[in-house]
Automatic annotation (TrEMBL):
InterPro entries: Aldolase_TIM, PdxS/SNZ, PdxS/SNZ_N, RibuloseP-bd_barrel. Belongs to the PdxS/SNZ family. This is pyridoxal 5'-phosphate synthase (glutamine hydrolyzing). The keyword Flavoprotein does not apply. The lineage of its organism: Eukaryota, Metazoa, Porifera, Demospongiae, Heteroscleromorpha. It holds the Pfam family SOR_SNZ. Residues 1-134 form the PdxS/SNZ N-terminal domain. It comes from Geodia barretti (Barrett's horny sponge).
Amino acid sequence: MAKVRIGHFVEAQMLQEMGVDFVDESEVLTPADEENHIDKHAFEVPFVCGCRNLGEALRRIGEGAALIRTKGEAGSGNIVEAVRHLRHIGNALRRLTILTDDELMSAAKELRAPYELVRIVAREGRLPVPNFAAGGVATPADAALCMQLGAESVFVGSGIFKSTDPAQRAKAIVKAVTHYRDPAMLVEVSMGLGEPMRGLDIASIPEAELLQTRGN
């Protein structure tokens, strides 16, 4: 998997030519286009994109994303934003399932999302592509929390590599995702991991510097 800047379709063309398995159109990088994302239907390589809410998720899927991840706040070691985004998506999904057909068009306008995708989500009660959690996962408990809130798996980067024992923490988080409803296993895998990544207070980060606010 390799990252491209939001809207930079030439970078994506180059990565596809290089044979990468997946392209991440990522808010972690400075956007190349502040208005438009890449038309992912024009590519054979699959894309993953971030979202903070259901509207963003459906817009990215409408553009051709094969995988969605909640943005969280990458590199923060603080799970609060990932939890916020998972809660937003879960609540919005449940709301759609109780709307009548004649209310779905209004919901699509409110979400700024393709109507046909809104109809699919209302019928199925879930996104039509896998939804991973990301941004701030630093402990096995964080990973299990995301899974219990509805994520289908988790992306972890800094939470592993900025800990004191990355290899052991990676193994523990993998086990936590597999056994996310087993408290005894979560206790076991959390033992002896050393110090986690030092978390940041999200409130101390200026809004203009929040990575999650890039893209819409």
